[in-house]
Structures are given as structure tokens and as C-alpha cells.
């Protein structure tokens, strides 16, 4: 499987999991109080903002898959000075904001799979970025992968 095909596959699975979180039936595994609802909304909003800032920071280097464009520029400022994959962080927060009010085992499992997938996708993308940008390894040694200061390369 080519890197491009693998990248497309990972993106499709990512959206399937997000769709599952949204559309699976809600349950009663935990009670959804006003506090949980408010917290979920704040986390969801924060996730959207982080995702949008990550997209804006990428500019013309943005692609639909984790495979970098031939003429891409390595972004290390803006959100990319805080984490190497702010869009994935944003998606994880969006997923959490959607999972908390669902109160469902299936939604919780889908969310766990989303976290696993995005972690795998980040590592896959980093292999490509290391090959594409000689300076990526030094950048990755200073900046956390998805969570600030966590997952720096050594």
C-alpha cells in the first residue's frame, strides 16, 4: 500500500470514528448533568478553535492526508510551536466533547479507537516528515507530539 493510499485510509477511518461518536445511540452509563454538558461544550469549542488554528497555521502546506505536499513548508510557529499535531489534538478534544454527553459504552469505545488512530496517524506522518524535512527531528525534540511536552523525539 502506498503512503498516499494509507493516508487516505487513515483519514476515512478517522471520520468514520467521529461519525460513530456523533451518531451512535446515547446511553445511560453515566449521568449527564448540567456541569457535564457545560464542560463538554467548552471542550468541544476548544477543540474546534485548536483545529482551526492548526489549519490556518499550515496555510498552503495543508493536505487532506498526512502525506506532505512536495512543496510543503515545515511549520514550527503558531500552534505548531506548542504541539506538532494541533489538528489531531483538536480532533481529540472534539471527540471528548461529543463523547461525554453521550453516556454510551459504544461511543466511549469509538472515542478510544479515535485516540489510538490519531496517535498511530501522527507517528506515520512523522516518518514522512522526517524524510521530507531534514530539520524535523530537531523540531520534534523540542515540541510535544499531541500534548505539549509529551512525545518529544530524542
Mean pLDDT metric:
94
The total domain count is: 1
Largest sheet: none
- Helical content stands at 55-70%
Shape: globular
Number-wise, the strands total 0
Order of helix and strand elements from N to C terminus: HHHHH
Q: Work out the strand percent.
A: under 5%
Indicate the radius of gyration in whole angstroms: 16 Å
| Count of DSSP-assigned helices | 5
Class computed from helices, strands and strand pairing: mainly alpha
Distance from N terminus to C terminus (CA atoms, Å) equals 29 Å
The unreliable regions are none
Descriptive overview:
Helix 1 packs antiparallel against helix 4 (105-132). The chain is an all-alpha fold and 154 residues long. It contains 5 helices and no strands. The mean pLDDT is 94. The protein has one domain (34-142). It is globular.
Explain briefly what this protein structure is:
This protein has 154 residues and is mostly helical. Helices cover 62% and strands 0% of the residues.
Essential attributes:
0% strand; mainly alpha; 154 residues; globular; 5 helices
List the helices and strands and how they pair.
Layout: H1 3-23, H2 34-58, H3 86-99, H4 105-132, H5 136-142
Helix pairs in contact: 1-4, 2-3, 3-4
